Amino acid sequence: MHILIRHFCVMLQHMFVLSVVLGYAVSVYAFEVAGIFGDHMVLQAESPIPVWGTGIPGETLTLSIGDQTVRAVVNDTGRWHAELAPIPPGRAYTLDIATPDQVVSLTDVLVGDVWLCSGQSNMQWTLEKSMNSSEEIAGSDYPQVRLFLVEQASLDDPPHDVRGAWVRCGPETAGSFSAIGYFFGRELHTQLKTPIGLIANAWGGSSAEAWMPRRALLDDPQFAYLVEGLPARQAALEAYRKELQAWEASGSKDPAPRWPREVRQFKWATMLYDRMLEPLAPYALRGVIWYQGEENTSRAYQYRRLFPALIGEWRRLWDRDDLPFLFVQLTSFHKRESEPGDSQWAELREAQFMTLSVPHTAMAVTIDVGDADNIHPTNKQVVGYRLALAALAKVYGRDVEYSGPTLRSVTKVDDGIRLTMDHAGEGMSTLDGLPPRGFEVAASDGPYHWAQARIEGDTITVWSDQVPDPATVRYGWSDNPDATLINTAGIPASPFRTDDRPGITRDSH
Fold first, then answer.
1. Across-strand partners of 429?
2. Which of 55, 58, 339, 457 could cross-link with 31 by S-S, CB 3.0 to 4.6 Å?
């Protein structure tokens, strides 16, 4: 009995020291593993596997999995880090992490490929809200696909860790997970026959800068203002909280104070990077899929620089210059216009397309599956499938077509302008079998007019009777274009333009 009492007192002392050193809530353990680790997780195959957590400074931990054992020592700040040697995919494992006083066993651990699924609401959108949800959920029994949903965090949460749990994919769990992530992972698992781990880490309405570090924004004169405005937003948040507390205390029957836009933290620069992204690193990944941009459409020209910078910062965080980054181009939305005009959404799509110049990236075009009345179109199957095609081609080296037609060159001809296209397959066609729609032409200094188009192999000739001497071409240049060009794989062409006019978002901040 005395031994048990003494051991209990030692454990309490350890718990107290840990809570004081790290400022965390008192734990029932002398050490803890980071929140991204758990039963049913997937570890990245054939790659060094970092494992980390917190503990009592100076304590030694032993990590064992399969036939390997490594050790880690808790440093002066109360953190420990170990690295397991690469493990080939195969059987399920147990990862044991132990000190003389404590053992944590993580069971049913698979080794395969891990993908991070991030962005804003269309990535967050769940399977249960998507097209044919009942049938899809009923057929979601893929026990070698594992799901981790990162719980949303706020400024009130400490930035040291994430919350969530790994679960097996099945009818009981898939419905509340990212639909795009699920369809992407299902296709990869079906094609590759390997375990797939999916980490859903998205927040509806979030801006790109919310997923970037403070240093990167402050170091760029074009982005510094995004961070410099944070104190004013913090003050607005505190004022709102006081107003809400006063309303609650008063017992008033009037409506509660309205949540002002400026205090929506998921739009704030750096907030989600600090609370929801950085704590995930360096969990070993195969790559990233990303669907975001709607929140940044009013600053589309800025996105040309912001989005590549974001990719670079994520790669810096994971210390991998070649980390695959696959993203979704914005789909169609809003009322369809009857005449050619300017478009913030078209300019954001252009910025996304330009980001393909960054190595190890690919883009899924979804212009054909949007919804004029719903910014969250429910056909997520196509989006996940096209991202999976991009992964199969660009990451896994499979001989599959993953892109729709893209512009290679422009030639002036007698009857208009001839466009030569890459990714045309065996010949281009249209969604409805009719002549291509969505093309516009303009003289060098004139307005755009609708154009007719003719497909000939991998070329398209466009012309308009209203523009005798056309100089430039646009395709799909609106929020919700009637754009019908596809290749033989059925993948739509990305909207594009051949002019370099300033655009309506060039001076937006």
1. 486
2. 55
Residue 12 has pLDDT above 50, yes or no: no
* DSSP run (H or E) holding 116: strand 102-119
Burial of 281 (0-12, 13-18, 19+ CB in 10 A): middle
DSSP state of 465: T
The pTM of this model reads: 0.91
The pair of three-digit structure tokens given for residue 249, joined into one six-digit string: 């205390």
DSSP helix/strand/coil, 496: strand
Pairing status of strand 472-475 against strand 496-497 = antiparallel
SS (H, E, C) 365-420: CCCCCCCCCCCCCCCHHHHHHHHHHHHHHHCCCCCCCCCCCEEEEEEEECCEEEEE
Q: Residue 449 burial (CB < 10 Å; 0-12/13-18/19+)?
A: middle
How confident is the model at residue 265, as a pLDDT? 67
For the chain, the residue count is 509
Tens of pLDDT, residue by residue over 142-155, are 999 999 999 998 77
Count other C-beta atoms under 10 Å from residue 327's C-beta: 24
pLDDT digits (tens, 9 = 90+) for 90-128: 789 999 999 999 999 999 999 999 999 999 999 999 999
Please tell me whether residue 321 adopts helix, strand or coil conformation. coil
* Cα four-point dihedral sign 38, 39, 44, 50: positive
- The Cα angle at residue 476 between residues 478 and 185, in degrees rounded to 5: 100
